[in-house]
Structure formats: structure tokens, C-alpha cells
Amino acid sequence: MDVYEDPATWTAEPVRPRGLLTARFIATVLVMPVLWVFWLAVILVTFAVGMVTEVIVVFSTSYENGLFNLLDRATARMRLPSWGVTWPELIHEGDTAYYKARVEREVRNWTTQAQFPRDPKKFRRVMECEIPMRHYRGIGGWYVAQVALAQGWELRPTDVRKEVRLWWSAAS
């Protein structure tokens, strides 16, 4: 049996010390605006280079793909880093009821997206999702598995220290 098939081993993370959380929250508040400005500058420079080199793009698809890959990387990194702490995490560290409600809300949102298409003319369902550890830190991945399996999701190979990956079983 693979490790991901036994969610009983997915226990909650230990409660982090309050001082460490406060320091990480302050660092997040100070660093994130700087990072966002930097990544916004990268995006704007990429657009400017793309506009200036439009002639090259007409003849070279690899150049255009390189610009798109740079944009994808820049926008993907504009999220909260793994060490970052948000205000709700600072306030609710160790509160299992908060994390249970957060997991239930997250799984319910993914289930709604999987069941109902966004645009009725373009029927495209969400079939796979990842729930980051930030949402289930206080209760463990086993609770995510319980809630998701009850709503029709299947577990996928996952690293529970980072995320729980799910597959919408009705899609198969």
C-alpha cells in the first residue's frame, strides 16, 4: 500500500511557537510588497520586450514561447511564500475548529467547481485539485481526505507536507 493511500498516517503539524509566528508575520508584511513590486516590474519588462521585438515573434515561435514561459513563472511566484504567515494563521494557530471549517469550505468550493461548469457553453470541469498545507495545518491531511472522499473525490499520490492532491472521481 502506498503512503498516500493510508491517510491515517497524515497527522496534524505541531503548533508553532507564538514568537516565531509573529516574526514570520512581520517578515511577510515587510517582504511581500517588495516581492510584488519586483515581479510586477518583471512582467512589465517582459511586455515591453515583447512589444519591441514583435517582428521576431512573427518569425520565431520559440521566442514567443520563451516570453510566455517567463510570464508564467513571474505570475506563479506572486503568491505567498511557504515561510509566510498570514493574519488568520497568526490568530488561529492551534485552533482545530477553524482549520476544520477552512478545509470544509475549500473542498466544497472545489466540488462546486467540479460539478458545475463556469460557462454553460464551454463545458469544462475541474478534475484535479491541490489543497495546500496552509489550509489543513492544524488538523492534518487525514481530515482533508475524509471530507474529500465523502464528497466524491479520490486521493492522488501526494506529499502531505506540502499539499493533498485530489481527483474528481465522477470525471472517470
What would the keywords be for this entry?
56% helix, 7 helices, 3-stranded antiparallel sheet, mainly alpha, 172 residues
Can you walk through the features of this model?
By secondary structure, the protein is mainly alpha-helical. It has 7 helices and 3 strands, in the order H-H-H-H-H-E-H-H-E-E. A 3-stranded antiparallel sheet has the order 1-3-2. Strand 2 (153-155) and strand 3 form a beta hairpin. The protein is flat. It starts with 17 loop residues before the first helix and ends with a strand.
Low-confidence parts lasting 5 or more residues at pLDDT below 50? Answer: none
Helix content: 55-70%
Question: How many strand segments?
Answer: 3
Overall morphology: flat
Work out the radius of gyration. Answer: 20 Å
N-to-C SSE series? HHHHHEHHEE
Mean pLDDT: 83
Structural class: mainly alpha
Strand order of the largest sheet: 1-3-2
Strand content: 5-15%
N-to-C span: 22 Å
In short:
This protein is mostly helical and 172 residues long. The protein contains 7 helices and 3 strands, in the order αααααβααββ.
Topology overview:
Layout: H1 18-52, H2 54-59, H3 61-76, H4 87-92, H5 96-115, E1 128-132, H6 133-136, H7 141-150, E2 153-155, E3 163-168
Antiparallel strand pairs: 1-3, 2-3
Helix pairs in contact: 1-3, 5-7
